[in-house]
Structures
1.
Amino acid sequence: MADLILVPGATGGVGQLVVSKLLEKGLSVRILTRDANKAAKMFNDKVEIFVGDIREPNTISPAMLNITSIICCTGTTAFPSARWEFDSSINPIELGLAFFDPKLLENKAKNTPLKVDFQAIKNLVAAVPKNLKRFVFVSSCGILRKNYFPFNILNKFGVLDAKQAGEDAIINSGIPYTIIRPGRLIDRPYTSYDLNTLLKATTNGKLGVIFGKGDKLAGDTSRIDVAAACVESLFYPSAANQVFELLNQGERPNVIDWEKLFYQLTIDN
Ligand SMILES: NC(=O)c1ccc[n+]([C@@H]2O[C@H](COP(=O)([O-])OP(=O)(O)OC[C@H]3O[C@@H](n4cnc5c(N)ncnc54)[C@H](OP(=O)(O)O)[C@@H]3O)[C@@H](O)[C@H]2O)c1
């Protein structure tokens, strides 16, 4: 069966770059999006577009037919924002009280980290074909340091708890996985650009790429490098069943040696 990669979150900052890098490699791409018009404009009809919401299992199962791998780039904001899709009944007092008891918002917002980064990831895990070759998941640095600054602030509304539970759902499924934990994302989302611009995107940073284990690193990570790591990981068996941090540090070589970076993970275990 020919490779067919499903990308939920393809309209987002990392997701768009993942799609462009998959196309660059000549792979067939199917995306899962809530907004088909936005996606059609973005990808010039070069991808299959399935409309679905990862919170709704019945909307994701049609997109799973014949896929061989999935690269999941979905996410919502760490702090309350319009992207949480609040009920119209929410009032400023409730929002204020939520800073003391964040759980108060769970019944008032539809697209919170708990729902997107955990419950919806469980939905994807349950729906993927049993013979899936790889489940690639964009997670976050700080998951094992939630009690330490600045991650205690970042996790105020549970984003790191949710990402960790999402990671666990993938790991415990028995599906081969690659979990990438970036630092603070830089190289701004190319959200208003077209596919040709995405294909030419280069990181403005002069820093190299390093991988870490055990959640000890901190710093910035280029969205372009996250997207490249997601796509490259599909080609290397050494990237299977690995969880690692990805940051930009040190001098940037002319060409990133992904094979060496993934291989290093297996000998550091
Ligand atoms: N920002 C940081 O510094 C940082 C640091 C570490 C890790 N991360 C993680 O890195 C990943 C990529 O970040 P990013 O900034 O590139 O993401 P982004 O631009 O915010 O994109 C998120 C994507 O998720 C989709 N999405 C959200 N809720 C959905 C739902 N219910 N059903 C289907 N799709 C949904 C969005 O689609 P719509 O267009 O339909 O909304 C969008 O395509 C995220 O998982 C984020 O948590 C971010």
Note: The chain has one domain: 4-76+111-268.
2.
Amino acid sequence: MKLLNRLLVAAAGALALAAPGLAAEKAKEPEAHTWSWEGPFGQYDQAELQRGFQVYQQVCASCHALEYMSFRNLGEEGGPFFDPEYPNPNDNPVVRAIAADYMIVDGPDEFGEMFEREGRPADRFPSPFPNENAAAAANGGAVPPNLSLIVKARTGGAEYIRSLMLGYDYPVPEDVTVRPGQYYNPYFPGGVLAMPPQLMEGLVEYADGTEATPEQMAHDVTAFLAWAAEPHMEARKSLGFMVMIYLLIVCVLVWLAYRQVWSRVHH
Ligand code: HEC
């Protein structure tokens, strides 16, 4: 009897292991999309980043952390709230106001107690859950991943994230089982995930008056996450451009020198 039990458990285990593998093959190709930062001269669009931050803050932040990111990053050059008047983001009033909206656990104080205080620009974004177990318990066993590097961490990058956010309206194929607390989304490897559909029409009220359609919010929040994953892209591109110009000038100089040096040699 014991042996039979063991065999059954082993078979169930093998099935569980095989199932995501089988289904993973069917993940739908992310939809192609145009982004402002593509190409050698592409830059982030600041209005887009601001709207994307608003979506992150009002919708995604209740489940997803933005580890490694500090409030002050929002006000750095290329970031959503960069203002040339405040080259030091710690002085940027928008950044200070955003930080002050958060309560940060600090300490220990002189009595050894932890205490809460208003956020400051140098603080990191606090995580929505105290630890992974709490995050899993609140989300049907799946931990919502940290979003600060997600655009770099997933094959398909920004296109995948956007398609995933908009990909909940597909009929569930017959061979896919969706258990309670799970949702079907053909873009997700395996097709079934624990994140409920997020982007409903008019979910946020954009500060700049843009209409908050699901497509608009998916585009904006993905742009924000792309910036979060590579905040120094603009600096990198402009450095690359300067290096190219420098090399071009050096090339011309070397060529002129070459002509000069060989001009007196008769062939
Ligand atoms: C109610 C909680 C909740 C909210 C709100 C939420 N998510 Fe999620 N999200 C999850 C969970 C749970 C997972 C893990 C799903 C899994 O692995 O089954 C997840 C996974 C993800 C993933 C990773 C998918 C992958 O390939 O592994 C991305 C990207 C994501 N969420 C983006 C967002 C964005 C953007 C928002 C805001 C618009 C958002 N989420 C809001 C719970 C949430």
Note: The pocket of heme C is lined by residues 55, 59-60, 62-64, 139, 142, 144-145, 150, 154, 161, 164-165, 188, 193-196, 198, 221 (CB under 6 Å).
